[in-house]
């Protein structure tokens, strides 16, 4: 007599959706930071290089949940940093990291404008 197979969940989609939602849960203290940076005329490449240099080191920092660099689709000299930190304290520590201090010292020569804002997850 053949063995019976274990009963599968009724829908693979619903089990995937539940696990995906669980992965997206952020700590209560988590903050998202968006930073829009515009390069000075002719500094697009240099700004991108400096921003790329931040990515790997920042992603390794304690409390860094997301650190992504984007370029505007219709404005090559405009970049977006999308950062998610476990807390504002983690972000404050990031601002003291050697790679951030290096960036901070160089950004004045590269930036035409910078706009940053912190966000809290609603749902």
> Which outline best applies?
globular
Mean pLDDT: 88
CATH class: Alpha Beta
Number of helices: 4
Number of E-state strands: 4
Distance between the termini: 51 Å
Query: What proportion of the residues is helical, as a percent range?
Result: 25-40%
- The CATH architecture term is 2-Layer Sandwich
Main sheet overview: 4 strands, antiparallel
Major sheet strand order: 2-3-1-4
Model regions low in confidence, pLDDT < 50 over at least 5 residues: 11-16, 18-22
Q: Tell me the radius of gyration.
A: 20 Å
Order of helices and strands: HEHEEHHE
Secondary-structure topology with pairs:
Layout: H1 12-24, E1 31-39, H2 44-59, E2 64-72, E3 75-85, H3 88-94, H4 98-110, E4 111-119
Antiparallel strand pairs: 1-3, 1-4, 2-3
Helix pairs in contact: 2-4
Structure description:
The chain has 123 residues and is an alpha+beta fold. The protein has one domain (29-119): Alpha-Beta Plaits. It contains 4 helices and 4 strands. The chain has helices spanning 12-24, 44-59, 88-94, 98-110, and strands at 31-39, 64-72, 75-85, 111-119. The chain has a 4-stranded antiparallel β-sheet. Helix 2 packs antiparallel against helix 4. The longest helix is centred in the middle third of the chain and has 16 residues, at 44-59. It starts with 11 loop residues before the first helix and ends with a strand. The relative contact order is 0.23.
């Amino acid at each position: 007599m053949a063995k019976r197979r274990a009963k599968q969940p009724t829908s693979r989609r619903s089990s995937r959706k539940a696990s995906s939602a669980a992965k997206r849960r952020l700590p209560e203290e988590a903050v998202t930071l968006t930073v829009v940076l515009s390069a000075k005329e002719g500094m697009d490449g240099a700004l991108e290089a400096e921003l790329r240099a931040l990515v790997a080191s920042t992603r390794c920092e304690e409390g860094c949940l997301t650190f992504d660099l984007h370029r505007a689709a219709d404005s090559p000299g405009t970049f977006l940093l999308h950062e998610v930190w476990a807390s504002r304290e983690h972000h404050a520590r990031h601002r003291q990291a050697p790679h951030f201090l290096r960036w901070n010292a160089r950004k004045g020569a590269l930036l035409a404008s910078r706009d940053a804002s912190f966000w809290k997850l609603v749902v």
